[in-house]
Structure formats: structure tokens, C-alpha cells
Fold BlaI/MecI/CopY family transcriptional regulator.
Amino acid sequence: MKIHSFKTNESGLNRFFGPLEAKIMHILWNGPEMAIKDVQARLVKEQAINFNTVMTVMNRLVDKGVLRKRAEGRVSLFQPTQSLEQFLETQSKELTNDLLEEFGPLVVNHMLDALEEADPALIEQLEQKIQALKKER
Amino acid sequence: MKIHSFKTNESGLNRFFGPLEAKIMHILWNGPEMAIKDVQARLVKEQAINFNTVMTVMNRLVDKGVLRKRAEGRVSLFQPTQSLEQFLETQSKELTNDLLEEFGPLVVNHMLDALEEADPALIEQLEQKIQALKKER
DNA sequence: TTGCGAACATTACAATAGGTAGTGTGAGGT
DNA sequence: ACCTCACACTACCTATTGTAATGTTCGCAA
């Protein structure tokens, strides 16, 4: 399995995951390899939550391929299959390609409209890359 | 209601809609204001489909705000609330903004990587817009 | 005037995704 | 021999989407 949808009405990890899934991924990305009860312990600080609930969701994340599970004696230890950086890199690349494929020039315009108002540094970066590209040809 | 998710594993209208929803929107975007039975007639050319099924889905599309329903005597006529162009414009803009918000510079790089392999004309367009932007300042 | 048929409304069921949690099982330590 | 803890299995709930049966209404024709 993989990530199939990007939610426009959410933010951060909630764009890729359900709310509990997102919290769990957040914990695993900001800490070491962990057992279920470790994750649960961190979640409980916010909100009471059943051990089995955490287990079920974590196992589903394993099925989706975003967590890896490893037996260490009697307990299972979990860790993300990708670093957060890799994950964001992968997802943003896939999304960007999808967008360009689907919308082509429209996206370029929107991009610039957005950059115009937002971030002069990004425009600089863009121009640098374009110049670099041109020289290569 | 609105569109809340963009599916990375689909293509075209299926990125925004379920498969039947997408077919229905396709028909309404490529024809005049229509009654349910007109839509059904076109769908049936491909695949037998129950009138009520079409009705239910079309009414849901009205609830979502992507179709408008208008009573004309005994029948209801349906038509998209936006043209396909407007819809794609809106969606691609929203997605582009979301992406930049969420990933910032990562997206700019992916964009250029993609453009590099894909389309020299888009790069030209990009550069034009950047020059235009610079002059404004 | 009555009643049929067409269009719409209401209701419901299946599948999938995600959140929640009860019950079952097995292995280790006491 | 047994108890506990971690894990497995199963199930139920909500939402979304596809599917369709049943119920209602109203104009027109006999």
C-alpha cells in the first residue's frame, strides 16, 4: 500500500494520514524506534487512548508500508521506513509531477502568482536554476 | 461542501471524484444542461446503470456544490456550477498554493527537475514571467 | 374522475478507510 | 501450574461512494 490522497482541507501530516495516524507518525519521526506502549504513553499525555487502538493503527501503517516492524524478543519495535525528510521529498515530488502532468502551464502561472506575493528568495532560486538550465543546452 | 482530496493514484477527473461521479461530470461538462435521464442515457451507452443510481450521485454532486439543480416543470435540469476551465483553474491554484505552503522550496526544485525533462516552452514561459516580475519592482 | 406512468424523494445496503476497542492466545517469569 | 503482558483477531462506528428498491406526487389520458 501507499499514500493515495492529499487532503486540501488539512495541514501538515494530516494531509497524508488520518488524525491518529498522523500523531503516531509524528511521534515515530521525532524519536527512536519504539514499541507500541511507548507510542501509547506519549499519546496518552494528550488524550486517553486504548493500547489496542494504537496497535491496530500502527499495524495498518505497517501494511501501508510507512512503518517497519521488527521483533525484539517479545515486543515489536516500530520505525518509519523513510525519514521525514525522505517522505516529504518523495511526496512533494510525486505531487509536483502529478500537478504538472495534469495541469501543465496552469500550475506554472499559479506558482508564480503565489511566489510573487510570498517569497522573493524563492524567485531568486528559480531564476538561478533557469540560468543553469539554459547554460547546459 | 467542496473537493477535499486529490488522488495521486488516479488521473483526470478521477483525481477529484469517484469513478461514477467523474463520468457524470464529464458528461455535464461536455454537453448542455441536462436532466437525469439524459445523463443516464449517455452512461448506458457504456454500461447498464440504474436511473436511481444516477439520480443519487447527481444529487450528491449538488450537495457538494459542483452541480446546480434547476426545476423546469416536472423535471430537474443539472449543470456544473463552474466551467471545466474554471474548475481546473480553481483546483490547480488551490493545490499549487497548498503545495508551496506545505513544502516551499522543495516544490520549486521538483518543478524545475520536472520541467527540465519535460517542456522547454514552459521554461520559456517561466522566465518571461520572472522578468516581468522583476521589472515591476 | 380516476388512475397510470414518469420523475423525484426516501431509505438502505455494500465496500473501503480510519478510529475505537473487546476478546482470544501464547510465552515467560514466578 | 498459573498469571500477566504483548500481540493477534475480530468487530463495530462514521464517512464516502456506488448501487438500487420502495414510496410519493402530479399531470395527462381514457
Observations:
- Chain A has two domains: 12-80, 84-136.
- The longest strand of chain A covers residues 67-72.
- The mean pLDDT of chain A is 91.
- The two ends of chain A are 40 Å apart (CA to CA).
